[in-house]
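Consider the tokenized backbone below.
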């Protein structure tokens, strides 16, 4: 028995030594950041901004690898199956980490088990807008209007299972209203549809929506974040509108495969925190309408867990299935 104890202690000490050695030498070659969407969009652009800054912080190239498909699951599955050595990281955002795998019959991975959080990059709120002649500029007015004609009023989403779809499902469930979803390929299409009076409502990013509200082309109804947006002082938050339970944010962050040594997670997290103080990095993110932030791995993990619980419950309750 004593021999077995000594063997176990020796093994544990050996593993600890290996972990320490990895942290001291990490990284000694390029790191891959898998972006689970095609090149060219905002998700890809922000991933490249982060990769560029982390390259400087880590002293090794951080190379973006685009792996689109299956609403982000192809790329994140690549991360889930990668060797947990810190050299393959995932670009984590709402869809493939907290929504999509729970909407399909045969998910490629379980987000809660496949990844460990490294740190947050940014969080942002969505903006709901209405065509000006709808007569809706607040949550209360929207609910009242919708109750007069269930299923009549339409909203544009960026697809089944998208954040815009699920946030509307959450709103409809909580307020006991019925809006008709009209899916589009992307935000630009929903803007054109709203301005062309093809739909009554839609969700926009702050970057796209604020100028339209300011110009009077659309009416701001509410924002989904916890605080009122400085560039939209006349648009109330959901919390201010009496529904703090509906507050929701979109996020970007970095994930690693489960099993990645904690010392490497800490090295990466420290690099991300340093990046968040880099003026060039902050300006680049703000230019695309994002609020730079940083977090501990535990804080990012708590956010992921909260989102997963919320959307799993909603998906089951509303019987939402991916097409």
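A designed sequence for it:
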């Amino acid at each position: 028995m004593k021999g077995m104890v000594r063997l176990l202690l020796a093994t544990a000490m050996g593993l600890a030594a290996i972990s320490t050695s990895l942290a001291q030498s990490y990284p000694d070659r390029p790191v891959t950041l898998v972006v689970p969407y095609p090149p060219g969009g905002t998700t890809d652009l922000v991933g490249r901004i982060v990769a560029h800054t982390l390259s400087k912080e880590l002293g090794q190239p951080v190379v973006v690898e685009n792996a689109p498909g299956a609403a982000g699951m192809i790329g994140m599955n690549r991360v889930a199956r990668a060797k947990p050595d810190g050299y393959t990281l995932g670009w984590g955002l709402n869809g493939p980490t907290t929504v999509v795998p729970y909407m399909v019959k045969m998910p490629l991975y379980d987000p809660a088990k496949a990844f460990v959080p490294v740190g947050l990059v940014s969080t942002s709120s969505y903006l709901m807008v209405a065509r000006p002649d709808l007569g809706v500029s607040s949550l209360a007015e929207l609910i009242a209007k919708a109750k007069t004609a269930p299923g009549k009023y339409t909203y544009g989403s960026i697809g089944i299972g998208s954040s815009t779809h699920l946030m509307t499902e959450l709103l409809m469930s909580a307020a006991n209203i019925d809006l008709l979803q009209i899916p589009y390929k992307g935000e630009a299409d929903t803007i054109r549809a709203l301005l062309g009076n093809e739909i009554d409502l839609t969700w926009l990013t702050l970057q796209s929506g604020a100028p339209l509200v300011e110009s009077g082309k659309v009416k701001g109804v509410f924002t989904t974040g916890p605080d009122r947006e400085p560039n939209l002082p006349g648009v109330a938050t959901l919390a201010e509108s009496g529904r703090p339970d509906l507050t929701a944010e979109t996020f970007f962050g970095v994930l690693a495969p489960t099993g990645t040594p904690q010392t490497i997670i800490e090295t990466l997290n420290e690099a991300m925190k340093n990046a968040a103080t880099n003026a060039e990095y902050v300006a680049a993110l703000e230019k695309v309408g994002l609020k730079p932030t940083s977090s501990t791995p535990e804080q990012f993990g708590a956010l992921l867990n909260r989102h997963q619980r919320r959307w799993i419950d909603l998906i089951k309750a509303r019987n939402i299935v991916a097409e």
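The two ends are 57 Å apart (CA to CA).
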